[in-house]
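Comment thread on ticket #2218

A.B. wrote:
> Attaching the input chain for the structure job we discussed in standup.
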Amino acid sequence: MAKMRGLAVCQMNMMQLLLQKISRRSKAIHKQEKIVNDNLKRKRIYLEKEKFDLMTVLRKSMDMQE
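C.D. wrote:
> Ran it. Output below, let me know if you need it in another format.
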């Protein structure tokens, strides 16, 4: 019984450690996502649009460069 209790405690500690690592990484991911979204909005590229077409955006970009 003591071995099972020790195993359960060990598993619980491992899960807490794993969840802490995920939480730390997700904060960095959210920060990068915000930066990317802000840059896209500044360039007037709206990925959320229902009929978003990347080729149209690329063509407009190429036309502006010429």
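A.B. wrote:
> Thanks. Noting for the ticket: The chain has a mean pLDDT of 82.
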